[in-house]
Amino acid sequence: MTDFKLVLAIIAREKRAQLRDRGCTPVFLDTCADFLHTPGISVVRDAQIAVQAGRVPAMHDPTEGGVATGLWELATASAVGAEIDSHALLIDPATVRLCTAFELDPLGVISSGALLIGCTADSADAILAALHDANIAAARIGTVRPPSFGFQLRRDGHLTPLPTFPVDEITRLFA
User: Structure pTM?
Assistant: First the structure.
């Protein structure tokens, strides 16, 4: 499951004038800025629902370094490889718009409010259904692979190494 509301709030709050100059409306910017508070960044409820719905041997709430770094951390801690489907990632169009405006990679921006759930294959559908029933956006974004597979991103049928972000992309806004 992925969620990029915090990065929207940060960019909308810190770069409002530049975004207005690039055609973003005040209503759009206000909506993005408010994501800091509504829906907020807690993943406790999401985690509780997932654990009640199926077998969840690992979870991670990615923060600095974004979803890509969170995936690296989760897979490394679990001693597994991972194949991630880029098209399955739930990246809000507003996130794409604001990241594109500042040439930031959405996979490497702060992702507080997102939750990565490592569940057993036979639990995935039940967990997704429970999250959807609770109106929580969620998707199956990848598959656990042997450690020798490494960390790969599948995009348009091709595998490439999952990008790494030693420094969060959001810091580039303030450089």
Answer: 0.87
